[in-house]
Design goal:
The complex is a heterodimer of chains A (270) and B (247). By secondary structure, chain A is mainly alpha-helical. Chain A is 49% helix and 7% strand. Chain A contains 13 helices and 4 strands. In chain A, the strands form 2 sheets. A two-stranded antiparallel sheet of chain A has the order 1-2. In chain A, strands 3-4 form a two-stranded antiparallel sheet. In chain A, strand 3 and strand 4 form a beta hairpin. The N and C termini of chain A lie far apart (44 Å). With 247 residues, chain B is an alpha/beta fold. Chain B has 2 domains: 102 residues, C2 domain (Immunoglobulin-like), CATH 2.60.40; 122 residues, no CATH class. Helices cover 28% and strands 26% of the residues of chain B. Chain B is built from 5 helices and 12 strands. In chain B, helix 2 runs antiparallel to helix 5. The longest helix of chain B has 25 residues. Classes of the chains: A mainly alpha (270), B alpha/beta (247). At the A-B interface, helix 1 of A face strand 4 and strand 5 of B.
């Protein structure tokens, strides 16, 4: 167990250098000697409460850090640490979780020359990269949608080390979408399969079916003329083009199945 | 390269000019819409007036200012003082007419609050977590460029007033903004866009991005603007004098 700390400038530099060395050598490097080095770190919360745990999903990761920071809010404030913006703290946390983050669920070492620096070194001020960090990314999303995290399951259902890159990139890079809770609810309903806990598979037997990339493009066109942030879901369904009809049909069918199962469960419980 | 000088509008959406809006930022952590003149746009009386404030921290906040015929001005719309320069503020007028519910009839983008009676700066300086970097120019189509200074410095003025920093960095900042301005103008040359404010600024220096001819590349033009900035601000001479004094 560790006290919650953050790297100072030298700590950030050393951490970054070691990550770059891992990329270049494509071999794991131990970072544990950095974690309690008083020349490289400062303590934010004295109590030893930080322990590397394996997260079952990005959602669990986001929730873990959200609860950690909320329960220590006063201490963070007194040290002038803003979890959404603190590079030193996220570098330190990534160092704590480094043994976990270096390996895929199948045990394969996952850092190579093409690995993105932003996955390990948080870039809070960069709107196209700040969501890519393996730990801070889920935390940002969870914080933004903490009033109803289930609406972002399509971005959070899978393993921390294997983000659903196509979806995360298409949605998180469009601030108009990711900042809009109502639109995330719409996306969840249309594209996420609650029974299987993963994105719906592409509908078959349709000539033209829009995918997530097309959805992003279409959204960018619609938002020019429609008040997408304030429109009810039914009105949005009316204006999105026919290429998404297959998804809507699928979501209607599935949601009625989910409702039936839920009703059956309620009866069984009684 | 030539920037477009006309745009097509097939949708009928009207533009609310920024001089028809006045927004004030208050140090207690809220903004107010003090003026919103829509009469000349001939909008339906019952259309809804909505203010949207978007930040990456709080997401999208929406505030209803009532109908066009009775706009509720001076409402306190909560916004943290630290977010004044970072928030994207829009004013929308939206239809409630059957068959076109949610259609945007008129819109103003890139609205910025005045603080202490002063208009917003052309290049806001914002303290920001930049890790090992000292500075970076961040661009946003709606709010324009901002110069970000690493927030690990106790006081960003220490950096921005430093002779070496000003001499070495400002011409590069100008170069990046000049290139961005050209890129933005290729997309649109709406008068209210931040890129147009910069275009007008560069024009006041004698560099008109809208009359760039095909023999001049974007990079060359931006480099010329940057060199002019270095000369105007005596970058080399100031830097040389400073170093000689230090020695």
């Amino acid at each position: 167990m560790y006290s919650l700390r953050k790297f100072n400038e030298n700590g950030i530099r050393e951490f970054t250098n070691r990550y770059v060395a891992m990329k270049e050598t494509e071999n794991p490097i131990d970072l544990s000697d950095l974690l309690e080095d008083d020349n490289l770190t400062t303590i934010i919360v004295e109590e030893k409460s930080i322990e590397m745990v394996n997260f079952s999903s990005r959602m669990e990761c986001g929730e873990y850090f959200f609860n950690l920071f909320e329960s220590n809010r006063a201490k963070l404030n007194s040290k002038n640490v803003d979890p959404l913006n603190d590079l030193g703290m996220w570098c330190w946390l990534t160092a704590v979780w480094s043994r976990y983050l270096q390996y895929n669920p199948d045990g394969k070492f996952n850092i190579g020359s093409s690995s993105a620096l932003a996955r390990w070194v948080y870039e809070p001020g960069h709107p196209r990269r700040n969501y890519r960090h393996l730990l801070a990314g889920p935390y940002r999303l969870y914080t933004l949608h903490s009033s109803n995290p289930s609406r972002i399951r399509i971005l959070m259902f899978n393993d921390v080390r294997k983000p659903n890159t196509a979806w995360v990139e298409q949605i998180c890079s469009r601030k108009e979408i990711i900042n809009d809770g109502q639109m995330m609810e719409f996306i969840h309903e249309m594209f996420f399969d609650e029974l299987q806990n993963k994105p719906r598979s592409k509908p078959k037997n349709f000539k033209q079916v829009g995918d997530v990339r097309r959805f992003g493009v279409v959204y960018n066109q619609l938002i020019v003329n429609w008040d997408m942030h304030g429109m009810p879901q039914e009105s949005i369904k009316e204006i999105i083009p026919g290429e998404f009809d297959a998804w809507l049909a699928k979501s209607r069918k599935k949601s009625s199945v989910v409702k039936k199962i839920a009703a059956r469960r309620r009866v069984t419980k009684k | 390269m030539k920037a477009t000088s006309a745009t097509f509008n097939f949708t009928g959406k009207k533009k609310i000019n920024l001089d028809k809006i006045q927004v004030t930022g208050h140090s207690d952590g809220y903004i107010t819409i003090d003026k919103l003149e829509l009469e000349s746009l001939e909008l339906p009386d019952d259309a809804q007036v909505i203010v949207e404030i978007m930040t990456s921290i709080l997401g999208i906040m929406r505030f209803h200012l009532g109908e066009v015929k009775a706009i509720e001005l001076n409402k306190e719309l909560p916004l943290d003082v630290d977010l004044f320069g970072l928030a994207q503020i829009r004013v929308k007028v939206v239809s409630i007419k059957s068959g076109e519910v949610g259609k945007i009839l008129a819109e103003a983008k890139g609205v910025q609050p005045e603080i202490g009676g002063r208009p917003p700066s052309l290049l806001p300086i914002v303290r920001s977590p930049l890790g090992p970097l000292v500075w970076r120019v961040y661009f946003d189509s709606e709010t324009g460029p901002e110069l970000r200074i690493n927030d690990l410095f106790a006081d960003s003025n220490q950096i921005t007033h430093n002779v070496i920093f000003r001499s070495a960095v400002i011409p590069e900042v100008v170069y990046q903004i000049a290139l961005w301005t050209l890129g933005e103008l290729e997309l649109s040359s709406e008068e209210e866009r931040p890129a147009m404010r910069w275009a007008n600024f560069f024009r006041s220096w004698g560099f008109n991005p809208l009359s760039l001819d095909e023999t001049n590349s974007a990079e060359d033009w931006a480099r010329d603007v940057s060199t002019y900035a270095a000369s105007k601000f005596r970058s080399f001479l100031n830097c040389k004098e400073f170093i000689e004094e230090e020695e």
